[in-house]
Backbone:
């Protein structure tokens, strides 16, 4: 089967196809014939040689990135009872060091997967990492409560557009930061107010909130501290600038927490249920063939993607 591998750290051109044997699943594992894989900012960051996953894998190149998969179970290892051959599944797999989703098949722990009933495989591949990041940022780290006011940065992006929906479903009042071309889209997801991040005065336009979910980091992450009400907090997701924003928050007596998403089968199943019930939707910005992975990375690095990007495998009808 084919994999798209990082052959060296650098530009998207370092992504190269390689033919490798299928792997036999061990105890507690299954092999999934992948139909779609999600493309996430961490994939591009790792390919560029940035961040913890890159540091840990620098001596193990070539390495196959990707953490989001959706496909069909085609082989079971010993002691797997919760899944069957032929099941349609999705999951966040191999996070953060193993990866492997950018391939036509992948062997993963059965505990990382959720069975799908109604959700299409392309939609399911777009859900796990982005959905879990939004969920955990809002509820585990942010401790969001019903009726609170929450600001979501980059609200039209892969994580952001799901965070808007999770927060609205929870009963929060959502203020969203997005470019003008995305105001209608983000408003359709339930945001009560959408503010243009190009406006230098956007913190004043937002006003005070109980929680900020910062999906941008850097200067806008620091500016968002102006919006944190007394007793509120800011959760920052980009790891590269997390310490800077924590320091800036501490100087002002504000609570800032960094976070790293983690697999959670129960949370993922809850999100799949919301999709199956029609209470949430996923915006797919573009679908690329596996061999076009470099184009997908160029697109995600542009920083202007509405929703999620996917890679499509050519091993299924």
Residues:
């Amino acid at each position: 089967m084919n994999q798209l591998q990082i052959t060296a750290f650098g530009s998207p051109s370092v992504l190269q196809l390689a033919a490798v044997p299928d792997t036999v699943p061990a105890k507690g594992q299954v092999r999934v014939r992948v139909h779609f894989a999600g493309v996430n900012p961490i994939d591009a960051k790792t390919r560029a040689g940035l961040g913890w996953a890159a540091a840990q894998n620098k001596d193990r190149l070539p390495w196959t990135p990707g953490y989001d998969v959706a496909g069909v179970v085609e082989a079971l290892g010993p002691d797997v009872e919760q899944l069957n051959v032929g099941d349609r599944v999705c999951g966040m797999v191999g996070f953060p060091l193993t990866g492997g989703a950018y391939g036509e098949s992948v062997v993963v722990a059965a505990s990382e997967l959720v069975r799908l009933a109604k959700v299409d495989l392309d939609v399911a591949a777009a859900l796990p990492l982005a959905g879990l990041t939004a969920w955990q940022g809002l509820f585990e780290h942010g401790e969001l409560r019903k009726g609170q006011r929450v600001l979501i940065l980059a609200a039209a992006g892969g994580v952001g557009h799901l965070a808007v929906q999770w927060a609205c479903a929870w009963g929060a009042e959502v203020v969203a930061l997005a470019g003008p071309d995305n105001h209608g889209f983000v408003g359709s997801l339930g945001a009560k107010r959408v503010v243009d991040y190009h406006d230098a005065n956007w913190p004043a336009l937002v006003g005070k909130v109980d929680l900020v979910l910062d999906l941008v980091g850097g200067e806008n992450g620091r500016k968002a501290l102006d919006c944190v009400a007394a007793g509120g907090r800011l959760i920052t997701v980009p790891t590269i600038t997390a310490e800077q924003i924590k320091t800036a928050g501490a100087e002002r007596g504000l609570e800032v927490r960094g976070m790293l998403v983690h697999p959670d089968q129960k949370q993922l199943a809850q999100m799949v249920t919301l999709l199956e019930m029609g209470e949430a939707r996923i915006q797919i910005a573009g679908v690329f063939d596996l061999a076009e992975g470099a184009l997908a990375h160029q697109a995600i690095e542009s920083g202007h993607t509405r929703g999620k990007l996917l890679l499509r495998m050519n091993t299924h009808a």
Q: What stands out?
A: The longest strand covers residues 29-39. The radius of gyration is 19 Å.
